[in-house]
């Protein structure tokens, strides 16, 4: 689609400063400080730190706090909107963690809240309440999640995958982040003082920010502000410490300006990440000096006012940026009294009244995940006319881990006994990893790094990966359990900083980036049984030629206690299984390449015509018949009846008569099973032959055709391997 | 003091999962950060937790940590000076 503008059609904000855009704006402009001693949950030991607690009313008592924060903000963003958004993209780091902790604390083994534990359940809840039919993507890149989500939404609109996207971030306070950040000594006991000489850390807060983004024609006569562009990068330096020179932050800001087609001198105001930690503010200042030199625009941080709302912050601050442009009023840096002369930044202490046409908004997170967004008044830059990225990616290398072993062992196990499921001992996939470099990793991170290295080795000639797209349905469960267990057993006296930093969903992606020094976009998505499909779709959307080669890695670990509580399919009493798959992808156009693309992602029940739109997305009945030699069907055992019905409907509607392979029957049940299936699919399409053991009908040839991989259940997804 | 440094060597290897190092290989004056051991900020925070738990000694500021986590000798000295025996 040419000549489109990406307009901010609605905004919803919840923070410690208030509910709604107006309350937040007035509080920020008047320098209100929303920090109070923690009341949300009792603290057994030690002094109580100040936090930014949101005060919300009229909540749904049946869902966790994060879900309520997200939905309240979503409702405000959609006020006056003619219908549901086509897609939902939400960033998060905590999901239902607060309620999961309550279950553990109360020794509630049934854990009625566990069904809402996952981070992706937040976006799914919002999508369900709004009857959103389209893709639902959950971004988990720690404190940059909300801003990274905006980048994905922008690319979705440019690719015409949606016309209206609800995008944002939401996080509630919980013990995990409270004690986790405390163990890292990153919290200022007196409240955050961003950019101040005496700053001692951040203030942990909660909230939600949602934007309704609409693709509008260039000729539309409205005055809505636009998301002009966004840029991503990775430090590839350290799990928690930023690159001291701020190289990653600089790369993200430059990429955002380039994407927005705005030169640095045209930026009128910078909404800095400015958490108030010594290191963040110092490295961000270095990056800002490198980009703007002597012509530094006015800048300020909002985190001394509302605290650090983690995944929500990038989205909240983008929403405030829109208001800044409309009002011609730039917020001051509440909490900053004596600007640190070492930063040489001269931040706004008081609000400054002056016309603002463009805002650069920064969000940086653990794992070195950086995102910058450019928000502008209409007409500041020309609309873009560059073609969107193709969903098709060429596969240069691949690797998998199943209960049977690597890809060769996996295919052999399926062909010999129709089963490759189980738990592969770590020594079988860690032998090529240096013990020193993985000493702090548990099973998921080890698996992910091993997969990444193996896929890179398999690829041969291409260069090392520039970008990393990682996904996991449940994230690092070993670290999550270890953190909560130590906290509980020590009566909240002690927690493990190592377990905390490695428990975030994007930790494995950070480790992969450090290993390869992959400084391009680094995105972790999570979406239960559809995590890999989300990751592949995101890869197709964001990867430009300069971002490849890229790794797309999906993995999940089985955890004896947590997997059975969280994953509905594993709770069905199936034997333990885990594993994952990795693809090294490029933008090569050679006809001989095996290519993979995520072509479809819709909510199964919010959309009556899903099956017809699936078939038309795949090019119609005739193309399906002539293009695919086999169908890989992923039906989570918890959705067996629904999934089987959907599969039958697809086969009869599309007239598909080829072999149908129910891959979860041999991979076992785990969220990223489709990553293993995709890697198998790539190998089979390359060989042109599917050996016996896969399909009930025995071995067969593909005759130059590809494999269609469909996911069924709550969502219907389609991935093409051709 | 020798007992304490020996004990700390064991605990450091165990706490930080340094599988490729034997406790006795760590010298009393070897640099903890930036030397052969190559510990980083997360390791030091993990040790802060261990020292508080096992010796009842708090190291709760970056400045103190910088002074204390130089080498084993200095660390052991700090612990024995500040220990109240309240560790658990």
What's the arrangement of secondary structure elements?
The complex is a heterodimer of chains A (722) and B (88).
Chain A (H helix, E strand, L loop, with lengths): L3 E12 L2 E2 L1 H9 L6 E2 L12 E2 L13 H13 L9 E5 L5 H9 L14 H11 L5 E4 L5 H14 L5 E8 L3 H9 L23 E11 L8 E9 L12 H14 L8 E3 L6 H15 L6 E2 L12 H15 L1 E2 L21 E2 L4 E8 L3 E8 L16 E9 L5 H11 L9 H4 L12 H17 L7 E5 L5 H13 L7 H7 L3 H10 L5 E4 L5 H12 L7 E7 L5 H5 L12 E8 L8 E9 L6 H8 L3 H7 E7 L5 H15 L5 E3 L1 H4 L5 H15 L1 E2 L9 E2 L4 E6 L3 E7 L1
Helix pairs in contact in A: 2-4, 5-9, 7-8, 12-15, 13-14
Chain B lengths: L1 H14 L25 H15 L6 H7 L3 H11 L6
Helix pairs in contact in B: 1-4
Computed CA radius of gyration of chain B, to the nearest angstrom: 12 Å
Class computed from helices, strands and strand pairing of chain A: alpha/beta
Low-confidence stretches of chain B: none
Low-confidence stretches of chain A: none
Into which percent range does the helicity of residues of chain A fall?
A: 25-40%
- What's the number of structural domains of chain A? 2
Mean of all residue-level pLDDT scores of chain A: 95
What general outline of chain B do the C-alpha atoms trace?
Answer: globular
Largest sheet of chain A: 10 strands, mixed
Structural class of chain B: mainly alpha
Q: Supply the CATH class of the largest domain in chain A.
A: Alpha Beta
Strand content of chain B: under 5%
Instruction: Say what oligomer this is.
Output: heterodimer
CATH architecture of the largest domain in chain A: 3-Layer(aba) Sandwich
Number of helices of chain B: 4
